[in-house]
Amino acid sequence: FYSLSLSLTGSTCSSSTGSTGSSSTGPTGSSSTGSTGSSSTGSFLCSLLTVVEWVPTRVRTIVGTVTGYCYTIGQIILAMVAYYIRDWRWLILAVSLPFYAFFLYSWWFLESARWLVLSKKPEQAVKNLKAVAYINGRHAEREKINLEVTTGQRLVPGSYSGVDLLRTQTLRTITICLSAVWSVTAFAYYGLSMDLQKFGVNIYLIQVIFGAVDIPSKIIVTVCMSTIGRRLSQCGALVLSGVAIFINLLVPYELQLVRTTLAVIGKGCLAASFSCCYLYSGELYPTVIRQNGMGWVTMMGRLGAMVAPMVLMLVEVKVWLPGLIFGGVPILSGIFAYFLPETLASPLPDTIQDAEDRHFKQDSEKEELALKEQSNSPLKELA
């Protein structure tokens, strides 16, 4: 219950982020949209990290998807609000006002017990754990929580920075691959969203359709993440989005219904990729640098979104060139995602060493499986 309540801020964050795409001019407009976008991004990121660190492993995928649906609801609400409020100033004000309510609501949130233990604050961690147990109605478990519960966690002295994201080979692989996944997902996602007028459909209606397609796509990716794993789900979502965009290049402009359908499918796959990478990234980075890691990859996502409008201008050079780029880079980033470690049913790593141990454990399991398959090979028996 407590974990689900944390995800309620997502819809407002999404509406506010989307509103920054409204047409604003001048220094005042740039300042207001910039502050709104940066604030909503930070709020969404903090709420997501709090959810990841509080939610048990067995339900983390479901709760992460619920958080993603808040983003979907925000997209649909934004289209409705923007339809009636055409002036960008009043639109930004309308979608930003709910933040004041969430500002008061956020004081009820509790700091992550996992982070408190690693920060040498076990007493506060125990207090927060008892509070959450009380909220969830687990009174028997609440009485058993004491300082001994936190003794199994290793205290890590010192502070951490962004440099630690590249400290070890495992973290370098994670950071480089996630940077590619995030930047390309945001690049293609916002590239499609910014070019709605080319589909010949009412821009507000297509925005609602683009938001509604997230509903089935996130259900599918949730099932995939819970069965085949995060890595293959991430790869599949990116590759399928690229394929849909490529096919759209071959469809004549007169067949607007087919073109719109393919664009919606591509956008749905990219939404599934977003839903996956938000959860996947939080599981890959250890607690001591999770905030730094998530901050870095989301920044890479924003850089990808910034490049998208520039690529759209290439239509003046060749009409098919933007589609070729928007379809090609997701397939390429899907290859990057394949080199990430799998996190399905794995506990969250707390330290950098935990992340290293998980990687080495997976490598050893792969080697054992390969040796077992080799020993059971029919060719070996014939030899």
Automatic annotation (TrEMBL):
* Residue ranges, compositional bias (Polar residues): 373-383
> Could you tell me where the Basic and acidic residues compositional bias lies?
359-371
One cellular component term from this protein's GO annotations in UniProt: membrane
The superkingdom of the source organism is Eukaryota
Any Pfam family matching the protein: Sugar_tr
What InterPro entries is this protein classified in?
Answer: MFS_sugar_transport-like, MFS_trans_sf
Q: Which GO MF terms does the UniProt record name? A: transmembrane transporter activity
Q: Does the keyword Transmembrane apply?
A: yes
Record keywords, A-Z? Membrane, Transmembrane, Transmembrane helix
Question: According to its UniProt record, where is this protein located?
Answer: Membrane
Give the region (Disordered) as residue ranges. 1-40, 359-383
Q: Which residues cross the membrane?
A: 37-55, 62-85, 91-110, 174-192, 204-225, 237-255, 261-281, 293-314, 320-340
Regarding the membrane, this protein is recorded as: Multi-pass membrane protein
Q: Which PANTHER family match?
A: SOLUTE CARRIER FAMILY 22 MEMBER
Protein name (database record): Solute carrier family 22 member 6, like
Species of the source: Electrophorus electricus (Electric eel)
Q: In the UniProt record, what gene is named as encoding this protein?
A: slc22a6l
